[in-house]
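Cross-check.
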Amino acid sequence: MTVTRSDMTILGDDALFVDRVRASLVLYCQGTVIGEAASTAYHDKRNAFAIAVLNSPNSFKQRVAYSVATDSNVIGDATTGGTVALDTGNVDTEQANVADTHLDSAVSSMFNSFFNLS
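Predicted model, tokenized:
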């Protein structure tokens, strides 16, 4: 079996997964973006987006979660390397297999693509 777009959609819709993505997003905004040097590439846009996220994390969590669910490490963890198909009956359990480090890495690597969400 291979990972499917259905797996990614089911993971991206899962409330537990979405809340974990929210935590990772808030952590990245607070711990990295807010304190970064003004000389960092795209800092003004990154900082404005980070402030918007910190002011209303629930407004961004779902949209970011859909992108994070497509990250190869994230979906690989959730599907045990593509050997477990996700469905509404198992996704709560399977999403717990996604390593926090993989969530954090996905948020970090995708962050600059989120500027226009606010």
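The chain has a mean pLDDT of 96. The CA atoms of residues 79 and 85 lie 6 Å apart. Passed to J.P. for a second look.
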